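Re: weekly structure request thread

Next one in the queue (703 aa):
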Amino acid sequence: ESLIPVDDRAFLHPTFALLPLSENNNAFQHRLLTRQGEVKYINRVISQVMDSSGKPAYYIMFVEDLTAQKLAEDNYVKQQKLYTGLLDDFSELLVRWKPDGSILYSNRAYKNLYGDSGDVGYNIYSRLKEEDRKRIKDKVNQLTPENPIILDKHVSQGKNGPEWHLWSDRGIFDESGQLIEIHSIGLNISEVERLSTEALLQQTFFEELFNNSPYGLVFLDAENRILRVNKSFTGIFGYTFEEASGHYISQLIVPEDKYGEWSEIIEKVIDNQGIFVETKRKKKDGTLIDVRLTGRPVRLKDQLVGIFGIYEDITLQKQNQRHLERHARLIELILSITQSPSMDYKKMLIKTLRESLLLLGGDLGLIFEYHPHIMEVTIHAQTENWQEECTLQKNIHSILNQPNNLIIKALNENQPIILNSETDDSLIKTICPGSSMKSLLMIPVSSEGHFSAALILGSFNEKAYGNYHLREGALLMDAVWRTVEQQRLVSELKKALSKAEESEKLKSSFLATMSHELRTPLNAIIGFASLIDETMAIEEILDCIRTIQASGNHLLNLINDMFHLSALDAGQLTLSKESISISRVFNDIKDIALSYQHVENKHHIEIRYIPDPSVPDIKIVTDYQKLLEILINLIKNSLKFTEKGFVEYGWLADQGKVTFFVKDTGIGIPEEKRDIIFQKFRQGDESSTRKYGGAGIGLTLVK
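Done, posted below.
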């Protein structure tokens, strides 16, 4: 018993330790104590020696000291446990597996991720997606002793959701080079993948912004060489990316006279000031454009690595700004000419020519008026060199007798034109036979639908005039000529008033009915003209001009009615019959009626056109102008005396004749007043407090 360690005595009987276990199992390993008290691991083998009777005579016991081997085995087990513990503490995924996919070993991190599917004996391939399974098998088949390592990245579906891992798989081969197992280490790169995805997303956003920005974007290196440009940059300046890349940007797009400015810009950017300037740059073809430039430095660890530039093409904005400034000067010019109370129309036209040459450009010019009844012109203003070089008065007949002449076409259609010697030299020579003029600008104006006068400017420069010269010249001449006509009308009105004063009964009747009608537009003209000054906004000035123009037109129409009435009294009006489409008549009536509705502020009154429903359109023989005046006067009368409801007008065809009608929901005409309203200067209400204005001659003209 003393040979048996205390810890072993509970299960190892002393006699049992000395006896064979059985006939066939007579070997046994256990611990024994030496005399010195050391614990030894032994392997004892007991053999029986029989006597002659077949009974055991004695035992022979062989004892083998296994202490060193046992200690080595225990140490190996301890090392294995230590090794396994260390591997389990790794955050990386560790797994040993056979080529067929079965797991030989997996650490704690692997099992925590995959749960039961990470246990020994489980097949790796069974938890992979088909595409991952095929890819990994293909890579495993590529493992060789010479190339024993493969890398693979895929997403794994763990207990807590998908995770990205980077796997390093090392093949283990036997002596014959046969793959016997794979040792794999998986590194969780989910955060790296997330950051990579975010970086890729940001890069994608940046690329979209960079490539599709409406502004020209450019990256320069620290030496101001172009690293990259976007599509808008190439579109603005005309260079391809290949043509721009690697070049100094100053050599490509900076005009020579802007080199000093460019140096200052670069200094400010390097000094971290940044810049935002409007300047000029040149395109590939040498064209100069206006740009708005923004520049910022790009620094890495306080070291300048490049410059980021933004170019916006503002050429069109600058052109529009210049046009607005020119337009403002034009309005000021118009006002200075037309609103001078002491300037008669002759002085007005002389000033118009002088200012036109300054505003629109030119070396010579004139303003003439055309008299169609005698086919002659009156020169109202001309430069001295025009008088010397051009003979418009002498050549007017030859010009007017050419039906396809571009000049005549422009005059008849009231369209401004530009002629240049390259394409229209013969026409220029017709006007100025001995002149070396290279280009000509002609601005016609009309009166009552017919050509009346024109401004002609000439230049020795072939490309002196453009479209905006046409627009500005037309606006100037239209305003000036209307003022001229209004001055003439006022003069003629004064003459008419003087004649009216000589008549006894007509004098009192005329003054009674016309005083208000004349004062109203004249007061509007004078009142709004006096309101205009140089401090007003352009839009307000234009409103005043439109009011003045409308009042002048009203005054013109009133005087025209008076002239027509005088001609009727004198028996000087004759009919001019022609065949016209009835739709043409009513198209013209519609435009005039709507215009009068606007002037009278009767937008709440509905205007209806009722044609004959059974006839789409017909031709009639009549005096078009007088028919138009009759119907317009009736419609105006209806609008004037209608406060609510509608005004209807139209026609009916019956047996080769046409009946025209005008109908309204107005105040009506008493029976006793139906004859009076057709008399000169008479109205249904002739009291001093009458509500409705008018000269009382519209229906007289109609009758």
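Residues 451 and 552 are 19 Å apart (CA to CA). The mean pLDDT is 81.
Next request, please.
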